[in-house]
Amino acid sequence: MANRYVVMAPLGAIASRAGDEMAGTAILLFAYGGSAADDGAAVFGLLAVAAAVGGPLLGVWLDRARSGGPLALSLASFTVGLAGIGVALHHRHEELAMVVAGLAGLFGPAVAGGWSASLTHLDAARAQRLAVLDASSYSLAGLVGPAFAGVAYAAAGPGAPLVLTLLLLAAGTVCAPFARVRRQERPGGESRPLADLRRGVAALTRQPGLRAATLSSCVASFGFGVFAVLVPAIGQEQFGSPAAGSILLALVAAAALASNALLTRRGALRRPGRVLARATVLVGLGIALAAAGHPVAAILAALVIGAGDGPQLAGLIQIRHQEASARLRTQVFATGASLKIAASGVGALAAAPLLHAGLTVALLTAAAAHLVAARLAGGAGNHPGGAGRRPSSPPPAPAVLTVSTSAASLCIDPD
Fold first, then answer.
1. CATH code that applies to domain 2-412
2. Largest CA distance in the chain
3. What are the domain boundaries of the chain?
């Protein structure tokens, strides 16, 4: 039985996130193939907005779960919603596609928050390694997702990327029930969902560590949202083709995976706040380097950004595990994910007017946002100790959707 937990939880997270990374590109390509590019952009935007709304509510539901069923149902709802969008766009029912996108997006944070809350352990060393594994799954998804979408489009037409997206999300859904749930009993009996929602919001806004990490991640996501929109312009200016931007993003993802591998070996996540702050500075410096206006500088910038991006996410994940109580952990992750999505969307919207002032100005703005984010991260999660507790506190009850000891060992131990 333990071996199933070992295999299913990490594979489920990777498959879901690869599908999620493909989803936006797949919808845009599908709409573009049907001569409805504007509708595809509107649907994509509605998915992001709905995710920002749905994150806290979805987190409360998953935190109250007694099995992996709610996570599986959330992922299935997101998958079915994307399929419904495809059907509606295919039949030119654009208004229906937008309605379905608004509903499907509510379940989008399950891909990030639901799985991240599951990949933890009471043993501090294993918890730190699982945080790195979790962050690496995002980098791996970012590396293979867009590539899969492009290959599928070239091989089988505009519908193929969406079909592949649905298959990957379905695979993640199948894995979800195998994640073990150990729900912490609440003192004084069962509380109401609205009370849990208020506690989760209070944890993010009043706990200094979580507040600092959340603010830092949102400001950095704004900056990265700006940068992501600028990548095709960098490709055009430095390499003569906007498609070269996808190669730069692949370099970012590859460097992030490599840096996380080094992070695991060195055990640096004992002080995740320090990792978060320094890695955010590194991302900012990489974006600033991209403003140098030379092809070699653009390649080096992608590598520097990736070297910071992997540890940046690993540090954030570890802070959330370390600071959030077990009864609110999924809500903290889901709400944090929804806020990051929203901040990234705002950054993407801000990129167009910034580009009117020139690519250099836009890149330096994105870099400055990361330096501000690093300053905000300064006090977050720098106390050593195990996941989910301060050194002076007794160990909490097992976290929501935890992976067994053998699972953590087999998934991430190098031996």
1. 1.20.1250.20
2. 65
3. 2-412
